[in-house]
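Input.
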Amino acid sequence: MPYISKVDREKYDHAISVIVAILSELGDHQVGGHLNYILYSIVKRYLDNKGIKYHRINCLLGSIECCKQEIYRRLAVPYEDLKIKSEGDI
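Output.
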């Protein structure tokens, strides 16, 4: 995952904290739809602002795919490893 500078992170941290607080108020079954809306809206509004070009769409989709893989690698795999230790392997 591309890491951005701490200065650049600070530009987003407040907005992210607000979104996380709103998502945290939802039931687990609602979060997926809301998160989908948020991510789609960010991409759509960015493209509305910058203009739709293949390169931009490709870059955004690639970023979303890499984010998905980073979530799996850094969050899901360690969780699954803990469950294998606590519950036993298949």
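The two ends are 31 Å apart (CA to CA).
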